[in-house]
Amino acid sequence: MDGDAGVSRSNTFTNATEGEAVASPQAALDANLQDGSQSQIIEGLLNRRSVLGTGSYDQVADAVLAANARAAEADLRAATLRSEAQASNWLPTLGPNISLSSLGDVVTELVVQQVLFDNGKKRAERAYARADVEVAAVALAQDTNQRVLGGLELYLNAEAGKARAHVNSAAMQQMERYEYVMSERVRGGVSSRVDHQIVQQKLNAMQSAMSSDLESAASAFAELNAMSVTPLDGVTGLSTIGQPGPGAQPLTVMKAEAEAQRSMAEATVARAGFLPSLTASGSVGSEGSGGGLNVGADNGFGFGTGASLDALEASQAAANARVGQVRENANRSLESLRAELSSLRRQEAQAQTLAAQAASNFSIFSEQQRSGHRSVTEVVSILETKVSTEREAVALKYEVARTELKIAALMGSLVNGEQI
């Protein structure tokens, strides 16, 4: 399914262990900027749909989002306030002026200034503030998606550990039976003690691997619970993952585009500082009132002025070049992940085939051992191969899921827009 047809989760989620409803944080994004315009970048973020289907993934995602400290949201709030302040920079400024005359008298004035012409400086300052908000908004979306990805990776680590341990646990009874048979054969003088020790070593190795897997799963769940608003020990299994919506582009590219707009606005402000501006001013004070027109430039002209203006033009070209470079890097990363996913799926299919063959071989050898045509050590070796191939098949299943989630995170599609 595409991203627009994905499951849209509500603003609450249910505690998987106790059935408690917990409110999700309110959305921090708003496409309506302070100057009344609409941000296409933020609108694109808000329209994104999560590719996580209903099930274990969205429970984990909601739990880690509800406990998010949302540090990046503070940066967005600060940028929004700066944009609000700059939205009115075209209005007159009013302020006091206090000076000491040559005769020792204190002269106080109330000065009003209005910029009449500034070569687009004020407009560029507003554009810079808008772009700053967009950069902070994309950074918040990246932070939110990375947090969900981190939680889901911990969940997959825990589930993979439990699945590998389950494979060992299912084979333990058989291995313990063969160990018992060998101990009785050694006691009866039929088999050597070395053969018994070999079986014991394989049994101990299987127990050790199972214990390590369970410890790894417990550690991952403990870390996941530490970053969640409620324990997630009752959540199990894998969920479906959809495809990002049409036209979606990586968040790194969106951020680079916003940063390019900010850089160009900054260059425009700097360029206007080298050009003359016209300002009207009026004052009322202890020495009377007055007014006039002022022509001036923020930056004086010098021998390096031409080079400074050329540098500003070059910085704008560099900003556009960075967008192209970031887009190329994102496409390379995306194609690399897709190739890795295709390879993992092929490996998973092969591993499942090998596991089925190993299970069939074990059944044949087990029957032959019972009829006296195979030794216990031969059957134990085949059982060990069967367990190894099954563990590999299980591990690859979770690696496939992990890679799918990485692709979704790169595209910024792990969280619904209104949940950012």
Automatic annotation (TrEMBL):
GO molecular function per UniProt: efflux transmembrane transporter activity
Protein name: Adhesin transport system outer membrane protein
Keywords (A to Z) from UniProt: Coiled coil
InterPro entries named among the record's database cross-references: OMP_efflux
Residue ranges with Polar residues bias: 8-17
Region (Disordered) location: 1-21
Record Pfam families: OEP
Coiled-coil residue spans: 327-354
Organism: Yoonia ponticola
Domain of life: Bacteria
